[in-house]
Specification:
150 residues, alpha+beta, 5 helices, globular
Length: 150
């Protein structure tokens, strides 16, 4: 497993569903990521990885020439080696919004593992401040992303 394998699995899923990423809003991005999580179990992506979760994060600002408030819906797959070393791989979507309406918003992060069910996790995401503020707003940009860390 690595971040490229996970990102490729997401891209295949998006292609099969004919999803155009840069046309998604926050609600549809959450729905697509939830569907991918449910439709493609982690064992189909990597038979050696068993820990799998969806993560929603927001807060912080992008860096570089484009400034925006980031909201990410990510899939986190954790690989546990026989030595006990754990590596977390991420793939998902990040939406950037005009920062003016988010200046006072505190950072937030939650995982599907924090909730008794996937439905409860989605309800928690939808009840979050950033979701409520952003649901009907077109993002400045939407991108797929991947990464990993130990």
């Amino acid at each position: 497993m690595n971040s490229y394998v996970l990102l490729a699995a997401l891209q295949r899923y998006l292609d099969q569903r004919k999803v155009v990423v840069d046309r998604l809003n926050l609600g549809s991005a959450v729905a697509v990521m939830t569907d991918w999580y449910q439709d493609i179990p982690v064992g189909k992506i990597d038979p050696d990885s068993t820990l799998d979760a969806l993560v929603c994060r927001y807060g912080g600002w992008s860096e570089g020439c484009a400034t925006g408030f980031k909201i990410s819906m990510l899939r986190r797959v954790t690989e546990v080696r026989s030595t006990g070393v754990r590596t977390e791989w991420f793939a998902g979507m990040t939406l950037m919004f005009d920062p003016s309406r988010y200046a006072e918003m505190e950072a937030f992060s939650t995982s599907s593992m924090d909730w008794p069910s996937l439905e409860e996790f989605v309800r928690a995401v939808q009840a979050s401040t950033a979701y409520k503020v952003s649901e009907a707003v077109a993002p400045m940009s939407v991108m797929t992303e991947s990464g990993g860390f130990r």
